[in-house]
């Protein structure tokens, strides 16, 4: 007791478990580097991985200008490896050992006890590690040098031999036929070291993109180290209810357990369900029901359940579609499973079902033939996907089974925003996998939609309009009072012009039907398109002083973004803008609606230029990925170098490093060193497969 009094608790820290990077997070342990290689200045030239073996190979540049670097030794190694002639197959094209290869090995077989921790604002977020890999230098270049040496010796011996050799003697050849392999012999062969080495060598390398510490993609991925939705309320995942805590202290006896009637293995009563943790309850319910409104889910979980905890758990097992929650594909099709109809692996099934879910975020109707044509799956699998979340209508297609949940969208705009960002990421993956055309990305206007106007009644539309007016009334009133005060201070007798704050009211009668197209656009826009084209408020325009504030906020975002990135595609800029919106508080001026045209005009107004990159004719890039913008003048000493580099890429889709170096030296009138060229390339370009591309233009 005395020791406890002498060591009081100073601070209590909340601990959260982040699951976004579960089975994806690896820890790389780098060796201690020589003085000529530092972590801050190192350039990752290439990276590749063998996923099944968890084997990684990184190629990193060596600072050859460092005073601790032995230049003569580097030249000797390059000469031994490549010889005197240099071509595309040479290991060291600069005739100098200017890079080092590192190969990985597993540091521990069981990493379930390890996690990566991030401490921020009094909260500790833990993400379990999927693997710990130790990187060690690879000396395969020495094997290449030995092979070159043996070839030269063989050539010399062949040259010294006599030219008048006798004809080869005829030799007898014995032909043998191998016996059929027994099952035991086959098992021994399969378990042999030679066979395992051969299988490992047969696995193909997968080339990776390396993103630096300050790259926007790295910043985006680092956000997944934080628990999703932890800021909504206190984390209650590890807190038990009184009944659950009592059950842990006094578990039922074995006799009581045996007295219970035995139910089928796939049947779970509601009483048994509520004894499970909240996350397991939600997962079991969603896996069985497939699609459910949030209100129904809360009613099934029982009274007293914390809605904030439910929101946090539901996002782990379901996605938001038209205001309703649809179970995730990887929950229905776990890893290492396959289709009962076609035997297709779970990964392909999840991709196809995600496409169907994404189509329903764009429209209430989906055509089965279109899904089958894009996903290339058998009709039975496609039918299963559609039956999970929609209802077939004769001669019309498949309609989403639940009406749009407007109440949930209104109450939880932060959840809607986060789900929208997740759907944007899924859409980008689907575009690359399926090579989606513009007609697939654009929601279709079907006659079937007009045939069901009862989805939203006229009274509901009027109530929505009134609610929107009340929401904006406070801001409009402040604008009016401000203008009125200014008029009084100037002793003017003119009446205040309040044209900018009038509320437009349209009569609603039984004779003239109300147009429903605006509401249909609102349905999809709220969940899946936060910034529709030409977005305005209910009155058809923004309030008087709001336009300037929106322009200032937008200009500040664009300027700060391009000063960090220098080169961005329109697609990447929109993604960063959505991330920026997600970090803003509700009601911010930027939520008034920013169209693509406004965003592009602001980019040009801030001193950026569009770079017309000559993409290859067979490119699968979307129109937004084809629009590349670059900061023309940043105000530093590298402006001229970057401008020359951008001119190069306005004529070439990809360029070799030596071409860039020579062009920079020629145009800038000076012999640039390696560090200066690296700095310019790091600002604007990425390296892939030995070639350099502008950021965001690599087509893998």
Automatic annotation (TrEMBL):
- Region (Disordered) spans which residues? 146-169
GO cellular component labels: RNA polymerase III complex
Q: Where is the composition biased (Basic and acidic residues)?
A: 146-155
The UniProt entry's GO biological process terms, in alphabetical order, are:
tRNA transcription by RNA polymerase III
Kindly give the Pfam families that the UniProt entry links to this protein: RPC5, RPC5_C
Q: Which domain of life is it from?
A: Eukaryota
Task: Give residue ranges for domain DNA-directed RNA polymerase III subunit RPC5 C-terminal.
Answer: 444-700
Q: What is this protein called?
A: RPC5 polymerase
């Amino acid at each position: 007791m005395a020791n406890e009094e002498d060591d009081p608790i100073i601070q209590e820290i909340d601990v959260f478990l982040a699951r976004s990077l579960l089975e994806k997070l690896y820890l790389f342990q780098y060796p201690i580097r020589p003085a000529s290689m530092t972590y801050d200045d190192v350039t990752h030239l290439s990276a590749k991985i063998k996923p099944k073996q968890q084997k990684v190979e990184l190629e990193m540049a060596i600072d050859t200008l460092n005073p601790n670097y032995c230049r003569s030794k580097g030249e000797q190694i390059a000469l031994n490896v490549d010889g005197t002639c240099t071509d595309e197959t040479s290991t060291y094209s600069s005739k100098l050992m200017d890079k080092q290869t590192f190969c990985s090995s597993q540091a521990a077989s069981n990493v379930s006890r390890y996690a990566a921790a991030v401490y921020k604002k009094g909260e500790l977020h833990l993400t379990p590690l999927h693997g710990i890999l130790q990187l060690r230098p690879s000396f395969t270049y020495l094997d290449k040098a030995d092979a070159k040496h043996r070839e030269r010796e063989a050539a010399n011996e062949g040259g010294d031999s006599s030219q008048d050799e006798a004809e080869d003697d005829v030799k007898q050849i014995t032909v043998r036929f191998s016996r059929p392999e027994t099952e035991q012999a086959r098992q021994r062969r399969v378990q042999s070291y030679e066979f395992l080495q051969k299988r490992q060598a047969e696995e193909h390398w997968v080339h990776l993109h390396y993103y630096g510490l300050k790259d926007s993609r790295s910043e985006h991925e680092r956000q997944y180290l934080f628990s999703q939705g932890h800021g909504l309320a206190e984390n209650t995942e590890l807190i038990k209810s009184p009944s659950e805590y009592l059950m842990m202290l006094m578990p039922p006896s074995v006799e009581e357990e045996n007295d219970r009637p035995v139910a089928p293995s796939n049947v779970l009563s509601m009483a048994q369900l509520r004894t499970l943790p909240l996350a397991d309850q939600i997962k079991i319910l969603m896996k069985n029901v497939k699609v459910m409104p949030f209100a129904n889910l809360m009613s099934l979980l029982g009274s007293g359940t914390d809605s904030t905890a439910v929101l946090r758990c539901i996002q782990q097992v379901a996605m938001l579609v038209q205001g309703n929650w649809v179970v995730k594909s990887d929950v229905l099709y776990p890893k290492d499973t396959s289709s009962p109809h076609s035997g297709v692996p779970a990964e392909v099934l999840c991709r196809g079902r995600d496409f169907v879910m994404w189509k329903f975020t764009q429209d209430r109707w989906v055509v089965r033939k279109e899904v089958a044509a894009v996903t290339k799956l058998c009709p039975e699998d496609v039918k299963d996907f559609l039956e999970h979340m929609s209802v077939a209508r004769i001669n019309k297609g498949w309609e989403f089974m639940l009406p749009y949940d407007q109440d949930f969208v209104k109450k939880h705009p932060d959840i809607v925003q986060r789900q929208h960002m997740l759907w944007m990421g899924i859409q980008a993956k689907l575009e690359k996998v399926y090579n989606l055309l513009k007609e697939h990305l654009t929601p279709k206007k079907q006659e079937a939609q007009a045939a069901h106007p009862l989805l939203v009644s006229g009274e509901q539309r009027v109530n929505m309009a009134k609610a929107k007016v009340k929401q904006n009334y406070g801001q409009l009133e402040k604008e009016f009072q401000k203008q009125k005060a200014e008029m009084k201070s100037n002793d003017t007798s003119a009446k205040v012009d309040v044209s900018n704050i009038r509320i437009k009211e349209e009569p609603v009668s039984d004779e003239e039907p109300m147009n429903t197209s605006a509401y249909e656009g609102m349905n999809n826009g709220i969940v899946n398109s936060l910034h529709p084209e030409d977005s305005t408020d209910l009155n058809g325009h923004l309030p008087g002083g709001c336009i300037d504030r929106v322009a200032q906020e937008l200009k500040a975002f664009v300027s700060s973004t391009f000063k960090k990135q220098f080169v961005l595609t329109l697609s990447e800029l929109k993604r960063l803008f959505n991330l920026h919106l997600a970090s803003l508080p509700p009601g911010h001026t930027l939520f008034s609606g920013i169209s693509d045209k406004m965003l592009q005009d602001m980019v040009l107004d801030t001193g950026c230029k569009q770079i017309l990159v000559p993409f290859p004719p067979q490119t699968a890039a979307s129109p937004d990925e084809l629009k590349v913008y670059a900061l023309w003048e940043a105000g530093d000493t590298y402006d001229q170098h970057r401008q020359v580099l951008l001119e190069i890429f306005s004529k070439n889709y990809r360029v070799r490093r030596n071409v860039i170096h020579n062009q920079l030296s020629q145009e800038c009138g000076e012999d640039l060193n390696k560090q200066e060229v690296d700095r310019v390339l790091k600002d604007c370009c990425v390296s892939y497969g030995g070639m350099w591309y502008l950021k965001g233009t690599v087509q893998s």
